[in-house]
Amino acid sequence: MDRKNILIVMFTLLWSTAAILAITWGSEFNWPDYVHVRYGFPFTWGIHTLSTIHGPVDIWKVDASALFIDLVFWLGIMSLVIIVVSISFGEKRKMEKTLG
Q1: Fewest CB within a 10 Å sphere: which of 3, 12, 82, 86?
Q2: What are phi and psi of 59, to 5 degrees?
Q3: Do residues 25 and 39 touch, judged by C-beta distance below 8 A?
Q4: How far apart are CA 60 and CA 49, in angstroms?
Q5: How many other C-beta atoms lie within 10 A of the C-beta of residue 50?
Q6: What is the pLDDT of residues 32-90, one digit of tens each?
Q7: CA distance 57 to 85
């Protein structure tokens, strides 16, 4: 396995882990009359309401379009970086072949 492939595999693993954490990590907001957890980064795609002024509840609000945009954001950046690395390493190989 050459250096380019190792770099791409390492980046893909790290970025995929970051994307999974960003999409599934919840931030709890403990307001006096509205306790809820928000999911998603950079866009909030899910809100799990735990308590309101009327007492404990279990309400989920899911925004599918925000989830789709989050996925496109994370996977799009990963794809762009992989393309740039592949192209840049490909150009270096062409230069080495023509010089050497």
Answers
A1: 3
A2: -120, 130
A3: yes
A4: 6
A5: 15
A6: 899 999 999 999 999 999 999 999 999 999 999 999 999 999 999 999 999 998 888 77
A7: 48
pLDDT at 3: 83
- HSE-CB at 40 with a 13 A cutoff on CA atoms is 21
- What one-letter code names the amino acid at 71? L
The alpha carbons of the chain give a radius of gyration, in whole angstroms, of: 21
**How far is 52 from 61, CA to CA, in rounded Å?**
14
**Sign, Cα dihedral of 34, 39, 42, 44:** negative
- For the question of whether the overall pTM of this predicted structure is more than 0.90, the answer is no
The Cα–Cα gap between 51 and 20 comes to 27
